[in-house]
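Case 291 in the screening queue. Each case pairs one protein sequence with one candidate compound; here the compound is zinc ion. For every case the pipeline is the same: read the inputs, emit a complex structure as C-alpha cells, and attach any notable structural observations.

Predict complex for case 291.
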Amino acid sequence: MTVPNGHRLAATDDAGVTTADQWCEALAEHAVRTIALDVGRLVVVAPHPDDEVLGLGATMAARSAARSTSRYPDSPHLPDSSGVADSLGSPDPLDVVVCVSDGSASHPGEVAPEVMRGRRQAECEDGARELGIGLRMLDLPDGGLNAADVDAALHPVLDELAPATVAVTWSGDGHPDHHVCAESVQRWIAAREGATLLEFPVWMWHWARPGDPDVPWERLRRVSMPRSESTAAGGSRTEDMTADAFAHKRRALAAHASQLASQSDAPDATVILPPAVVERFFLGDEWVFTP
Ligand SMILES: [Zn+2]
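Case 291 output:
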C-alpha cells in the first residue's frame, strides 16, 4: 500500500519540524475559513485510542457541554457513554467516538500487546467520559489495519449510529492506519446521501511546515466551537467556553497516560507523545479538511 506522505512521517525525527508556536503564528497570518458542524450526531472515527482527543477533543467537549446545558439547564453533569443506546433516534443524539484498533502495538518490544490492549481500552473509556461522549471500540488488532476488516467492522456501526457528520483522520496524514480508516469512511459516505465527511490532521502537524505543498491548505477549516444557549450572548463567556473545552481536552488526553510517559525502564524507552508533540494539539482551535 502506498501511503500519501508516509515517507514524510517516516523521515521526521521525534521532535517534529514545526513547533506549536510557529503553527500558531502561521495560522493567525492565514485567513483560514471557519466551519460550523451540522446539527445531529457527530461520529469521530479514531484509528487508535487518543486520535479522537488529539483531533477534535475540544470540539466534542464543547458540543457535549452545549447539549447538556440545553437539555439539562440546571445540571452541570455531562452524559457519558451509557447514553448512546438511549439517544439512538433522538433529535438531539449523543456524539460518539468509534475507535477502530485496540492500540496494542504502541510499544512493541517494551509492553506485551495483551497488556497494552487492556491499558488503552481503560484510557479510551476515561477519555470519552471526560469529553461527555459515547464510545464504541471495534478492537481490531493494532498494526496494519486493512480495508476489508475495517469496512466489515466499521460500516455496520456507522449504519446504526446514523451520523450527520463523520470526522476521521486525514487520508494524507502519513500513517497507514489513518489512511485506511479515512478511505473506509470515504466509501461509507459515498454510498449515502446527506452525511458530511471531515478529515482531521494528526501527524501532519508533526512532519509539515506552514505552506507545505503536500498539504491541501485551501481545504483546511477552523472548527467553530458550539455555544450553549445560556452563554451565547457574551463574547467573554464564549471565550470561557472555548477555554473550558480545551481544559476538558487536556484532561481527556491525560487519561491516555501510556502515550505520554515511558512504559519501561529502558534508557531508550518510547514516549509516543512528548510535550512538544502534545502542544501542537492545543493551538487554540481545532482543524479539519473538507472534501
Ligand atoms: Zn493514530
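Case 291 observations:
- DSSP finds eleven helices and eight strands in the chain.
- The beta strands are 34-35, 42-46, 96-101, 134-140, 165-169, 196-200, 220-223, 287-289.
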